[in-house]
From TrEMBL:
Belongs to the FAH family. It comes from Cupriavidus necator. GO terms for molecular function: hydrolase activity; isomerase activity; metal ion binding. The lineage of its organism: Bacteria, Pseudomonadati, Pseudomonadota, Betaproteobacteria, Burkholderiales. This is 5-oxopent-3-ene-1,2,5-tricarboxylate decarboxylase. GO terms for biological process: carboxylic acid metabolic process.
Length: 280
């Protein structure tokens, strides 16, 4: 199943994608369904209405607008670690995103007026159906509801103002998420072996296999659960490969008028124009 959260006539809906149309389920949310323990692999088939809407007639929303936690993983592709001039850590590099940084498919990525160093990071996001503590690696993938695309837009100047990356990763309008949540049964276990590419204005700037992750999805879930209680609806953003603009000479930062796209086999394409922040 491919779930789409969207606005139509000022109201929020959930639906399942059928080609260029969306079959409406109703005014439910994925957060609510996951908190209730619903099996997303079958729910859409059993509860979708007869009503369909065209994708041209909707405004996309992030698959989950207010997930309990957004846990991001840095330095999870060795080639990206090398281009960033770090030693490859033997433990995942973890930071958090806030809900207010999220935007949907086709919504603008916002370059803040405080800095011109907005960079792209194409990634896969994991959405949990259930969680807990001390989850074994063998049991971890059973916790996954599905996967979505993510562009971890990073304001590099602010990311490196301190040893902690949090501020540079949390400017409003920089975390693109969507367009669909694709249930885990439609992809290889752990989303392994998929081609991930980021394009800026049509040019491929990042390209890698998800097999290149240093810590795979099951490992990340298990390690995270050593420290914190994972919950249904939590989002884990799994890291980006090499090719970021900050590591290039000259640097390739996103600017107003650009179009950034993240594509992964089986997940589709997340597309966002870039605009400058407006001030009152």
């Amino acid at each position: 199943m491919r779930y789409v959260s969207f606005l139509k006539d000022g109201k929020q809906y959930l639906g399942v994608r059928e080609g260029q149309a969306i079959r409406v389920i109703g005014q439910a949310s994925l957060e609510d369904l996951l908190s209730r323990g619903v099996d997303l692999a079958t729910y859409g088939r059993d509860h979708a209405s007869a009503e369909t809407v065209s994708t041209a007639a909707i405004t996309y929303l992030p698959p989950l607008a207010r997930p309990p936690k957004i846990i991001c993983v840095g330095l999870n592709y060795a080639d990206h670690t090398r281009e960033s001039k770090y030693e490859q850590p033997d433990y995942p590099t973890i930071f958090l995103r806030v809900q207010t940084s999220l935007i949907a498919h086709e919504a603008p990525l916002v370059r803040p007026h405080a800095s011109d160093s907005l960079d792209f990071e194409g990634e896969i996001a994991v959405v949990l159906a259930k969680g807990g503590r001390h989850i074994s690696k063998q049991d971890a993938l059973a916790c996954v509801a599905g996967y979505a695309l993510f562009n971890d837009g990073s304001v590099r100047e602010y990311q490196f103002k301190s040893p902690q990356w949090t501020v540079g990763k949390n400017f409003d309008g920089t975390g693109a998420f969507g367009p669909d949540l694709v249930t885990a049964d439609e992809l290889p276990p752990g989303a392994k072996g998929l081609l991930l590419q980021t394009r800026l204005n049509g040019e491929v700037v990042q390209s890698a296999s998800t097999d290149d992750m240093v810590f795979d999805v099951a490992t990340l879930i298990s390690i995270l659960s050593e420290a914190m209680t994972l919950e249904a609806g939590d989002v884990i953003v799994t890291g980006t490969p090499s090719g970021i603009g900050w590591a290039r000479t000259p640097k390739l930062m996103m600017k107003a008028g650009d179009l950034c796209e993240v594509t992964v086999e089986g997940l589709g394409t997340l597309r966002n124009p870039v605009v400058d922040e407006t001030t009152a």
